[in-house]
Write a structure and sequence with these properties.
By secondary structure, the chain is of the alpha/beta class. The protein contains 13 helices and 9 strands. The chain has a domain of about 160 residues: NAD(P)-binding Rossmann-like Domain (Rossmann fold), CATH 3.40.50.720. The strands form 2 sheets. It has a 7-stranded parallel beta sheet, with helices on both faces. A two-stranded parallel ribbon has the order 7-9.
């Protein structure tokens, strides 16, 4: 049986200023755990492309929340995990993705194997798309801000997960017993189409929001033209929209319930909270 984390040793959160990382930091801090927030812009600087930043970040830490660099071919993660375990890290929690498994992305699967073969306690998180993509990720949030959301997922639905749920599962995996060796697939409690999601945001904000269906090819060109992604990444994102369009991504996962003993937050809760906190306050009318 696994033990709780050592409350005297800091927990290292990579990507600690990002969408999930900053929420993991908030959860751990609120619970009284010592946290070391690491990113290229944090006080503890961490850069996957600069190995000189790794040892100061990881030394003394008992657990690590791993957010990967999309450009890594796997070698950086392998080197970092070897260093971390050599420096005494005893628990690793990896942010992966459900689509990475479903579409057999070798990079995602290889990263999971690296963590599983690390020789220390590990937990894999496989979330679907974040609800926060509508407020924090330009490929959708810019459309909401401008009143015109382009998409190519057709009538396909997706069970968007609230990033706070991801953070709470990660915090539990880092600090509590019973999560070692677990893979948690994380989704919201219901699947929505992009127009349905945007309609909820419109109702909560009192704004008129348009959704604009595109063909897959048009959508890739849109993502590139708007500067959201380089072409190779845009094509990958387009492939994810196509996966949703085909109806393959609408199924629900039980990871939040398994890890936390409760149901995941509904998309409506995210929309109401974001609107109440001014998340779309500066959006164009």
């Amino acid at each position: 049986m696994t033990k709780s984390a050592d409350p005297a040793s800091p927990l290292l959160v990579l990507g600690g200023t990002g969408k999930t990382g900053r929420r993991v930091v908030a959860e751990l801090t609120a619970a009284g755990w010592p946290v070391r927030t690491a990113s290229r812009s944090a006080t503890t600087r961490f850069d996957w492309h600069d190995q000189r930043t790794w040892e100061p970040a990881v030394t003394g830490a008992s657990g690590v929340y791993l957010v990967l660099d999309d450009a890594d071919d796997g070698s950086a993660l392998r080197s970092f995990v070897a260093l971390a375990t050599a420096r005494g890290v005893r628990r690793l929690v990896l942010l992966s993705s459900r689509e990475g498994r479903d579409l057999a992305f070798e990079g995602s699967l290889a990263a999971e194997r690296t963590v599983q073969e690390s020789g220390v306690e590990w937990t894999i998180l496989r979330p679907v798309w974040f609800a926060q993509n509508f407020s924090e990720e330009p490929f959708l949030s810019s459309g909401v801000a401008g009143g015109d959301v382009a998409y190519s997922s057709g009538d396909g639905a997706h069970p968007f997960i609230d990033a706070t749920d991801i953070a709470q599962v990660a915090a539990a995996a880092l600090t509590r017993p019973g999560h070692a060796g677990q893979t948690y697939e994380l989704s919201g409690p219901r699947a929505l189409t992009i127009p349905e999601a945007v309609a909820e945001i419109a109702a909560a904000t009192g704004r008129e929001l348009r959704t604009r269906p595109l063909t897959p090819e048009e959508h890739v060109e849109h993502l590139v033209a708007q500067g959201y992604y380089p072409r190779a990444t845009a094509e990958t994102v387009g492939g994810l929209f196509a996966f949703i369009r085909a109806g393959h991504d609408a199924y629900l996962s039980d990871g939040v319930r398994r890890a936390l003993g409760r149901e995941p937050r509904d998309f409506t809760e995210y929309v109401k909270a974001t609107a109440a906190n001014g998340g779309w306050r500066h959006a164009a009318n």
